[in-house]
């Protein structure tokens, strides 16, 4: 998944995609144990995509919650 594609996703879509990728990673671990994995490079691709989605999700939430943080410090 490219950075442009990740930016287009809403936060809800990002979370769904993260869950899907985590399940894929989980299943790939079992395939690795059983010797059924075909491309070990997929591990890194999935991990990087999860990191991209988390970063994008965090940025979107930071933008939404900036007013909460600023009002919190004024108390």
What does this 3D model show about the protein?
This protein has 75 residues and is an all-alpha fold. Helix content is 85%, strand content 0%. The protein has a single domain (10-74), classed as Helix Hairpins (Orthogonal Bundle).
What is the element layout, followed by pairings?
Layout: H1 3-8, H2 11-34, H3 41-74
Helix pairs in contact: 2-3
Notable characteristics:
75 residues; Helix Hairpins; elongated; mainly alpha; 85% helix
Tally of individual domains: 1
Q: Largest sheet, described in full? A: none
Unreliable residue runs: none
Q: What would CATH call the architecture?
A: Orthogonal Bundle
Please state roughly what percent of the residues sit in beta strands, choosing from under 5%, 5-15%, 15-25%, 25-35%, 35-45% or over 45%: under 5%
The ordered H/E elements are HHH
Offer a quick outline of the entry.
With 75 residues, the chain is mostly helical. The chain has one domain: Helix Hairpins (Orthogonal Bundle). The protein contains three helices and no strands.
